[in-house]
From TrEMBL:
<keyword id="KW-0444">Lipid biosynthesis</keyword>
<protein>
    <recommendedName>
        <fullName>3-oxoacyl-[acyl-carrier-protein] reductase</fullName>
        <ecNumber>1.1.1.100</ecNumber>
    </recommendedName>
</protein>
<keyword id="KW-0276">Fatty acid metabolism</keyword>
<dbReference type="InterPro" id="IPR036291">
    <property type="entry name" value="NAD(P)-bd_dom_sf"/>
</dbReference>
<dbReference type="InterPro" id="IPR020904">
    <property type="entry name" value="Sc_DH/Rdtase_CS"/>
</dbReference>
<dbReference type="Pfam" id="PF13561">
    <property type="entry name" value="adh_short_C2"/>
</dbReference>
<dbReference type="InterPro" id="IPR002347">
    <property type="entry name" value="SDR_fam"/>
</dbReference>
<dbReference type="InterPro" id="IPR057326">
    <property type="entry name" value="KR_dom"/>
</dbReference>
<comment type="subunit">
    <text>Homotetramer.</text>
</comment>
<comment type="function">
    <text>Catalyzes the NADPH-dependent reduction of beta-ketoacyl-ACP substrates to beta-hydroxyacyl-ACP products, the first reductive step in the elongation cycle of fatty acid biosynthesis.</text>
</comment>
<feature type="domain" description="Ketoreductase">
    <location>
        <begin position="7"/>
        <end position="191"/>
    </location>
</feature>
<dbReference type="InterPro" id="IPR050259">
    <property type="entry name" value="SDR"/>
</dbReference>
<dbReference type="InterPro" id="IPR011284">
    <property type="entry name" value="3oxo_ACP_reduc"/>
</dbReference>
<keyword id="KW-0443">Lipid metabolism</keyword>
<keyword id="KW-0275">Fatty acid biosynthesis</keyword>
<keyword id="KW-0521">NADP</keyword>
<dbReference type="GO" id="GO:0004316">
    <property type="term" value="F:3-oxoacyl-[acyl-carrier-protein] reductase (NADPH) activity"/>
</dbReference>
Length: 248
């Protein structure tokens, strides 16, 4: 696909943080962009305006990624209004941290349902169309917690490890249809998700980051934009860490 062709991207969890930066980056690259969010309509409306400044089309919907039927509707509306989806990015995600012995069932299920089922629901909804069209690119946002595990995040780490296994299986299944599926695994990124952490927790984490700072959502979005572009045409099934070296 040439860089100047009209393309459509869908980003889940696009209203804030990494998803938001990805929506803007893809719009800057000329994608028409659809994105969904869970509750923060104000953030979504503000983002819509910013996206329009790039001269591309934008569609936003309040869609709970935990519900397959809702995600299917989002995909149908996107394809009806913007055209076939070329790139899907799953950034919707939550944390509900607790040591395992204190973890509540709902904390376990909320995280697995949002982070892992959300990825399944999205990929399940876009894959068939991409297969029929013989092309597409999927980027699922995991975490270094899914590769190495984080104490007090057994639910989150399990969900993010699940995304890696899922995406590798998907890459093997759909590669012959010209579809690439990759994973981005960020470390500590400066978003609302990490702003709730105490200064002490942040300082401790930063001690392990060779680059000595949190990453930005824009830096993650740049990597996503690369992965969905033709420049990454021979990359699939990859898990790309973007973590300032925290896992060295
Ligand atoms: P964030 O700032 O908290 O934003 C989360 C986004 O997900 C929001 O747009 C939110 O919508 C949406 N969302 C949450 N639950 C949803 C649901 N059920 N259905 C639809 N949308 C939903 O998070 P972030 O830091 O950008 O994280 C984005 C992704 O990167 C997540 O998957 C996260 O696990 C991953 N990640 C983040 C970091 C980090 O350090 N920040 C590190 C590694 C991986 P509303 O605005 O409506 O709430």
């Amino acid at each position: 696909m040439a860089d100047n062709e009209s393309r459509v991207a869908l980003v889940t969890g696009g209203s804030r943080g990494i998803g938001r930066a990805t929506v803007l980056r893809l719009a800057q690259d000329g994608f028409d962009v659809a994105f969904c969010y869970q509750s923060n309509e104000q953030a979504a409306l503000e983002l819509e305006k910013e996206v329009q400044e790039f001269g591309v089309r934008v569609l936003s919907r309040r869609t709970d990624v935990r519900e397959l039927a809702s995600v299917r509707t989002l995909v149908e509306e996107t394809e009806r209004e913007l055209g076939p989806i070329d790139a899907a990015v799953t950034a919707a995600g939550i944390t509900r941290d607790n040591p395992l012995v204190l973890m509540k069932d709902e904390e376990w299920h909320d995280v697995l349902d949002t982070n892992l089922d959300g990825v399944y629901n999205t990929c399940r909804s876009v894959a068939f169309g991409m297969m029929k069209r013989k092309g597409g690119s999927i980027v699922n946002i995991s975490s270094v917690a899914g590769v190495y595990g984080n104490a007090t995040q057994s639910n989150y780490s399990a969900s993010k490890a699940g995304i890696i296994g899922f995406s590798r299986a998907l890459a093997k299944e759909v590669g012959r249809y010209g579809i690439r599926a990759n994973v981005v695994a960020p470390g500590f990124i400066d978003t609302d998700m990490t702003s709730v952490l105490s200064g002490k927790v942040k300082d401790k984490a930063l001690e392990s980051v060779p680059l000595g700072r949190l990453g930005t959502a824009e830096e993650v979005a740049d990597l996503v934009a690369y992965l969905v572009s033709p420049r990454a045409g021979y990359i699939t099934g990859a898990v790309l860490q973007i973590d300032g070296g925290i896992t060295i």
